[in-house]
Specification:
Structural class: mainly alpha
Mean pLDDT: 85
Pfam families: Sda
Radius of gyration: 10 Å
Helix content: over 70%
Protein name: Sporulation inhibitor sda
Strand content: under 5%
Largest sheet: none
InterPro entries: Sda (IPR015064), Sda_sf (IPR036916)
């Protein structure tokens, strides 16, 4: 299990590297499941 910070970092990196859309959607679904918002995503960077 990834920490919230690692999950957000992974999402950001996956988007930056233009990884497969399905993988990005999977990360985003987990972010939403954990109720991590955009504001928290910005703070993680």
């Amino acid at each position: 299990m990834l920490s919230d910070e690692m999950l957000l970092d992974s999402y950001h990196l996956a988007v930056e590297l233009k990884l497969e859309r399905d993988f990005i959607k999977l990360l985003l679904a987990e972010i939403k499941k954990r109720k991590l918002g955009i504001q928290q995503m910005k703070l993680a960077y």
